[in-house]
Amino acid sequence: MNYTYKQIWLINFPVMMSILMEQLINITDATFLGHVGEIELGASAIAGIYYLAIYMLGFGFSLGLQVMIARRNGEQRYEETGKTFFQGLLFLSGLAMFLSLASYILSPVILRYFIRSPEIYNAAVDYLTWRCFGLLFSFPFLAFRSFFVGITKTRVLSWAAIMAVLIFSLNLGISGAAMASSLAEAGSLLILVIYTFLKMDKENLGLKPVYDRKLLNSLFHLSVWSMMHAFISVAPWFLFFVAIERLGEKQLAVSNIIRSVSTVFFVIVNSFAATTGSLVSNLIGAGEGRSMFRLCGKILRLGYAIGLPLIIIAMLFNQQIIGFYTDNAELIELAQYPFIVMLLNYTFALPGYVFMNAVTGTGNTRIAFIFQISTIVVYLAYLYLLSYCFTTTLPVYLTAEYLFVILLGVQSCAYLKISGI
After folding, report:
1. Is-above-0.85 flag for pTM?
2. Mutual angle of helices 249-285 and 135-150, in 10-degree steps
3. HSE-up of 401 (CA within 13 Å, CB side)?
4. pLDDT band at 169 (very low <50, low <70, confident <90, very high)
């Protein structure tokens, strides 16, 4: 099973589009709110990351689901792929209902503890009041995406992303953006449901609604570590923005602009990382695990071929890109150096997340979680030193992201070499 560059790209591109769809809310909010005011722009930074941390619980479970489906696909046990999918769909739907209600009730209490500015707090709560209900659509969508990525049939994900873009154009402000995002997720989910039940070979793939407690328990034990791994990978971002709030509203607004632009590169990195996990699991299922590093090398070369030209373009037109988010000349000036620091992190983030997801693809989600924990401990210690022991600037704060992905990549790569899979 020797994946070519073309095969990898054809699998990855729809995944990239589906992840981009999920991140459009961040880009659109920052673009719109940057022309409203600094407070609204800063509030969307904290609220957006807070929501993303909750979302990542479902995303993490879907990674475990994807690994198990891909393994069955690689073993050519095709009926088991559909059966596994339905266990994941059941769990993610139940989790979505619980987290939507919990977020609606508890978010105002939690955010009051972290946010000092009353204006930023009120704007953040207004955003989350509507946004949390999008989980009811995004989590089932994740189950379908795991199924299609796991069996390497990803083209339909591009159609779902197009549907999301069409609905998302209805954006009507901060609350309207949250509502439009939920509608976009609902439309994307509908596309996948219709395609699955009209176009897929339900008999051969075992696509029959069935509850298997033993299989669900096995899936949960595999996925619980990737759930925690995904959650804690984003939770420090929330603490990062809380730390930046201490620098002032302007610095927080600049951080949100930087985060919004970095979303484009986040999409590229995470799509290749997700593709890595699925293809590594397929390789192991087919008994060809020793080809893993060759596969990772191809994925990294593709990732750099796509990302580096975009970085060069962004650096050449940095003022125009930042100006797209705000008319404030002071914010544009403040954002330039942090913007460059953020862009260059891509060179380290790509291998860091590719190798981390290769570890997840082996099925050892627990060791991936341990690597994440050890990395975050160092990351938070570094942020603490910057916040309480030194007086520093935003570009220096952003170097914490370099530390994070480098440590993640080094640990993951070393484990894969030592384990000899």
Report:
1. no
2. 40
3. 27
4. very low
